Amino acid sequence: MELIYENSFVTDSDIKKLSKRIQDIHNMINDRTGEGSDFLGWVNLEYDKDEIERIKTCANKIRRDSDYLVVIGIGGSYLGARAVIEALSHSFRQKNVLFAGNNMSPDYLNDLLEFIGDSDFSINVISKSGTTTEPAIAFSIFKQKLIEKYGAEEARNRIYVTTDREKGLLKKEAIEENYESFTVPDNIGGRYSVLTPVGLLPIAVAGINIDSLMLGALQAMQKYENLPDNEAYTYAIIRNTLLKKGKNIELMVNYEPKLHYFTEWWKQLFGESEGKDGKGIFPAGVDNTADLHSMGQYIQDGQKILFETVIDIENPYRDYKVPAQKSVELDFLTGKSLNEVNHMAMEGTIKAHVDGEVPNILIKIEKLDEFNLGWLIYFFEKACAVSGYLLGVNPFNQPGVEAYKSEMFKLLGK
Ligand code: PA5
Fold first, then answer.
1. Out of 35, 114, 283, 374, which residue is the most buried by the measure of CB atoms under 10 Å away?
2. Does 135 contact ligand 1 (Cβ within 6 A)?
3. What is the 103 CA–ligand 1 centroid distance (Å)?
4. Full-model pTM
């Protein structure tokens, strides 16, 4: 992975100004002395061989006995798995992992039940707290469907629970019913949990190589554990500097539709970690080139409050040559590789946006595979923690999400 930025919008002196603060944050993370440091478990990522083997064994069993795995979870208990599965799967082939419990739409639920129909399925209910409303509702529905279809005993064999080590309703039920269970480590919050069983079980069921994903993340961990030449820290400094210069919104930009949910995962990571105490960059995203024909107008020409972080995948798995064009106006495209055209669109857009006072940061990866995704996940997690501390907030809590819940519970008569 390579991080490229123009030093016209963030200068060496901007970076120097924050170097003492970065040194302090680096120590704070390593010594576990900052706010929320009980949730720094993801920093020292571990490859737990036994647990990975158990995940693979369960994934193989699910693949053998089910057409679909319904993954029930929301927020950090949902987006990481979806991001990786969408990024590494065929764009059009039906995936064997389906998602529920991330909304409360009756139409979504009915469509999903109808789609599953008579197919064999298992469920993986994921909730660290074990009490979140959306997954709790979906779990009760899908559990009932399993019991109706297979009977109580076999239903039990098709329920996989990922939750807290000891607390919560879900843990209690998992013990009582003897469900196969995985633990969300105490010291890892939802949005930092994709590289734990929260993400790894569904990802493995989708047929994705979780060893390579972990390897990428582990190598990123080594790369970003030291202070000098730390691109995760540089990214955090750039964001912080741009915010101070009035750039309040960051757009994650891709030129590969498979990255749509990676952006959703990233939005949660940064939005929930930084948006508090009246502070924070608003994280948003665009899928190019589609969004250049909609949001492109605003980005180029609207309020100068945006900056962009572009993910550039250098090599596609398969390229395609543009056929000979009959019209003279389109002849310049004849014989060009689609990857080249896509890249020229990216480079042209970056140039135009930078000229239009929208700073661009470029993150280059060689190809979209498990290794590079694992690397990116760790990179963004580390950068997010540093960025949150630079901003002066606790990057690991989410007090703001309670407000809607208490209003909703009042209305529901809880
Ligand atoms: O990052 C977080 O902590 C949250 O987004 C949670 O993941 C989300 O609210 C779901 O919580 P739980 O796993 O307890 O159901």
1. 374
2. yes
3. 13
4. 0.98
